[in-house]
């Protein structure tokens, strides 16, 4: 029997096997997801807690909710599935297990998505994902936590894409009563007509409550577990215990590092490279490339989708040299543009492995292609380690292919002692990139400084030499329009960089320190360790017009305006000429 570990899996089952009702549920949840995908949508500034109450029947969840309403005042009380799916519940309760579980898991996602519109006040949820998975494991699989099959252990962790949807602070509570006391309450409730759900009856009949509580205790939500609350004693005593935990969790939340929305993300999905640039700050320390591993392409897509759902608008694929994995790269470019519908998809490459065939197949889905070129003298490129003497020739070909396949062309240059005195203005004018990014050579411990293969120190230039290079090139007006300069201070912490393992790299210490991978934790949790400086990102003009559709439309409008202007001018001149001829005719007559 299936246990679903992501929204996509549950949607697939309901779409294909859940009949028309299943398709309606999927459509509702998809619409909710689309409504969430707006700029800067990560819910990281919520100040009101979301309190999730779990526990077996008879532990007093309803009583605690009523008490919280009295204590906290205005509270939103929700349940999973939420109101928008409530009418489907009776239908799916009568379905086979794997379809029923898919519905209830999607109910969790719908409930999480609905939290955004309730952020103005505290929220209490009566049962959520922990109950969905605990009941599935206890009833469908009848597992014992300390003797669980290996293939089911992954189900004990809350799905990452569901964690991504949760605002903070979230307080996970598990109410617990001595079994004899709980059973008395359940029987009393059944006797007075309150009734029990079919699953509750089955649970009691099979005497599985103790096993179900054990499953609750081993569930994980990221690094958290459910906080067990003793539900015995008076209502006031239980509420006091709950409030103490809520206050403590909220205080912990306030101590966390604020998180910026990942608008623009750079994924260095491979460290391998066919060049050997002496200044490289992302060197070939490993050969791992997730998209080229078994099942890695699909995992890459899932992680990219989660980044998109967290607010990412632009993805940049880099390396190493990304075109060493050209087919996988093209597949991801197409996926990001066609399925994720990102505003911008870009690549940074040394250009050596780019072909016209690849551009013909995938160029339609690519917004920007940035080529690294540090000199227009091949001898200098060879000295730096960038190729063997044909780098500029390949650059010229790529420039033409970008025109042929309507891809925005960009140039990146790293300035070192080898090229700081070179004048590149004429070449930049001729090639007409939409952007010319000029970087001061950056030392990074563990990559090009220290006990490593490369030593960048002999290539470093002082800030005034770098600024002199920039000032010299800004004298040319057409170059000035596209030149974007980044010195060491501007560059170091203003990029969100994912390494080959999908870990954000924190450069604040002068080294690249990886945090947890988004393959293992929620995107927000990973972002907390990134050391990202959003103010510096904006200061270096990190957000610009990066959609080729918008840029090309603007260019077409400009050309059309020029044509219209010329036409109006021509008509005016013709009119003036005709008037002059008519005047002369009158004079001669």
UniProtKB/TrEMBL annotation:
Supply the InterPro entries for this chain. Answer: Aldolase_TIM (IPR013785), Elp3/MiaA/NifB-like_rSAM (IPR006638), P-loop_NTPase (IPR027417), RSAD2/Viperin_antiviral (IPR051196), rSAM (IPR007197), rSAM_sf (IPR058240), Thymidylate_kin-like_dom (IPR039430)
What are the Radical SAM core domain coordinates in residue numbering? Answer: 259-480
Q: What SUPFAM superfamilies does its record include?
A: P-loop containing nucleoside triphosphate hydrolases, Radical SAM enzymes
Give the UniProt keywords, A-Z.
4Fe-4S, Antiviral defense, Iron, Iron-sulfur, Membrane, Metal-binding, S-adenosyl-L-methionine, Transmembrane, Transmembrane helix
Q: Where are the transmembrane segments?
A: 564-582
Domain of life where this protein originates: Eukaryota
CDD domains according to UniProt: Radical_SAM
Q: Which cofactor does it need?
A: [4Fe-4S] cluster
Looking up Pfam families in the UniProt record yields: Radical_SAM, Thymidylate_kin
Cross-referenced NCBIfam families: viperin_w_prok
**Name this polypeptide is given:** Endoplasmic reticulum-associated
Q: Which organism is it from?
A: Durusdinium trenchii
**Taxonomic lineage:** Eukaryota, Sar, Alveolata, Dinophyceae, Suessiales
